[in-house]
């Protein structure tokens, strides 16, 4: 007489996946270990979700453990495909070639999107499209007049590692792990591929088995998100939180703590938030209650801020033209672009500048609540 094997303990399995990473990786926070372990598991369950977050290991300097992190991920995800300088056509054909798409692992992504690389719009578009389950890449197939338009599925897991940053559209679809060099008191076990890859693959196989047993209940899950996590960050984290809820134990709480921490960190460091940073600095530090300010005074105030990026935006200080370009992206309460208008100064001449009434609607919609002024500062 045979008996069914006991159900696999998902929480215990994820604990082992996290411990495997800890042997070889030093991540910057506990939240990073939680996110990476959940991402490894989510790669086995892409068919359950409407979107898949990109995992981005980024650092300002070489020797920060980015490539090693990607190596460990490679041992744990299904059908890993290491891509260095791969073209968009090669990737979308690889993804659409079979029933089980590869998990794309992009090392040295800075050679694709870095300061010295080209725009690579085709590859960026492919990575962005594959974030959604419905994402496809359209190409003409055939010769001459017999060509037909074919939709190539682009949905697949993608993890990247590189120096610097990424295009904003990729960053907003990513869980960002800001890697750093190990401190003298931080030690890891040397990774030996012939020895340790089989260990990771054994965990991978167990993850796949657990995923098959949990697929039905995860597919219909709508996990509760931490307060304030909406829109694109919600798309990024829903798959990971659904998995955390499915495995149970301490993972649901740890996952939500990690979500809140990493989403907040991405707001503070993303280049994509520079527009919001500009609006916030204008509201709190430049206007600060004034109803209108000449452009020349705004520029002088912004560039003089020691801890702000305005003295070096893409290699040059913010000027009136770039300020106008930034603000024109936002609109007034009347739905017209924010532009400089005439201001009559106390001495008589008319100069160009900005009015608080024009900026107020953007401040309300995009900026965090203004800091509360203490009684002392008000006095």
Summarize the structure.
This protein has 15 helices and 10 strands. It has helices at 10-24, 30-42, 66-76, 88-96, 110-113, 121-129, 168-171, 193-219, 231-247, 251-269, 274-287, 295-303, 320-328, 356-366, 375-378, and strands at residues 54-59, 80-83, 103-106, 136-141, 148-153, 158-163, 174-178, 292-294, 341-344, 350-355.
Give a structural overview:
With 379 residues, this protein is an alpha/beta fold. It is built from 15 helices and 10 strands. The strands form 3 sheets. The protein has a 5-stranded parallel β-sheet with strand order 2-3-6-1-7. A hairpin with a 6-residue loop joins strand 4 (136-141) and strand 5. Helix 1 (10-24) runs antiparallel to helix 3 (66-76), helix 1 packs antiparallel against helix 8 and helix 3 crosses helix 8. The chain is globular and about 80 Å long. The model is unreliable at 374-379 (pLDDT under 50).
Keywords:
379 residues; alpha/beta; 5-stranded parallel β-sheet; 3-stranded antiparallel β-sheet; 15 helices; globular
Helix content: 40-55%
Which structural class do you get from the secondary structure elements? Answer: alpha/beta
The termini sit apart by 84 Å
- The overall pLDDT, averaged over residues, is 87
What is the assembly state of the chains in this entry? single chain
What is the overall shape?
A: globular
Major sheet: size, sense and barrel closure? Answer: 5 strands, parallel
What order do the SSEs take from the amino end to the carboxyl end, as H and E?
A: HHEHEHEHHEEEHEHHHHEHHEEHH
The Rg value, from CA coordinates, equals 24 Å
Give the number of DSSP strands: 10
Q: Classify the beta-strand content into a percent band.
A: 5-15%
> How large is the count of helical segments?
15
Strand neighbour order, sheet with most strands: 2-3-6-1-7
Uncertain ranges: 374-379
């Amino acid at each position: 007489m045979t008996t069914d094997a006991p159900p696999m303990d998902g929480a215990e399995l994820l604990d082992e996946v996290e411990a495997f990473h800890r042997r070889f990786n030093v991540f910057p926070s506990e939240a990073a270990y939680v996110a990476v372990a959940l991402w490894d598991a989510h790669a086995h369950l892409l068919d359950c979700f409407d979107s898949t977050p990109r995992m981005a290991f980024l650092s300002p300097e070489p020797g920060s453990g980015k490539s090693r992190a990607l190596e460990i991920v490679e041992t744990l995800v299904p059908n890993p495909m290491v891509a260095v300088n791969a073209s968009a056509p090669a990737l979308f054909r690889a993804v659409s070639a079979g029933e089980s798409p590869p998990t794309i692992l992009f090392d040295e992504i800075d050679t694709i999107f870095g300061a010295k690389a080209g725009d690579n719009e085709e590859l960026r578009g492919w990575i962005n499209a594959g974030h959604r389950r419905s994402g496809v890449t359209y190409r003409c197939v055939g010769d001459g007049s017999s060509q037909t338009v074919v939709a190539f599925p682009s949905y697949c897991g993608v993890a990247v590692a590189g120096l610097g940053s990424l295009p904003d559209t990729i960053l907003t679809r990513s869980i960002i792990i800001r890697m750093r060099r190990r401190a003298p008191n931080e030690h890891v076990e040397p990774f030996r591929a012939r020895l340790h890859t089989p260990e990771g693959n054994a965990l991978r196989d167990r993850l796949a088995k657990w995923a098959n047993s949990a697929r039905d209940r995860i597919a219909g899950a709508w996990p509760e998100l931490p307060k304030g996590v909406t829109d694109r960050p919600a798309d990024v984290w829903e798959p990971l939180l659904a998995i955390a809820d499915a495995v149970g134990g301490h993972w649901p709480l740890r996952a939500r703590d990690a979500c809140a921490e990493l989403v907040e960190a991405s707001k503070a460091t993303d280049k994509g938030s520079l527009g919001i940073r500009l609006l916030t600095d204008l509201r709190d530090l430049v206007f600060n209650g004034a109803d209108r300010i000449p452009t020349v005074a705004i520029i002088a105030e912004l560039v003089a801020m020691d801890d702000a990026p305005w003295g070096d935006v893409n290699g040059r200080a913010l000027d009136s033209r770039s300020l106008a370009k930034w603000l024109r992206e936002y609109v007034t309460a009347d739905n017209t672009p924010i532009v400089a208008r005439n201001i009559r100064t106390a001495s008589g001449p008319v100069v160009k500048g900005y009015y608080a009434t024009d900026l107020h609607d953007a401040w309300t919609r995009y900026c965090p609540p203004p800091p509360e002024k203490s009684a002392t500062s008000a006095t």
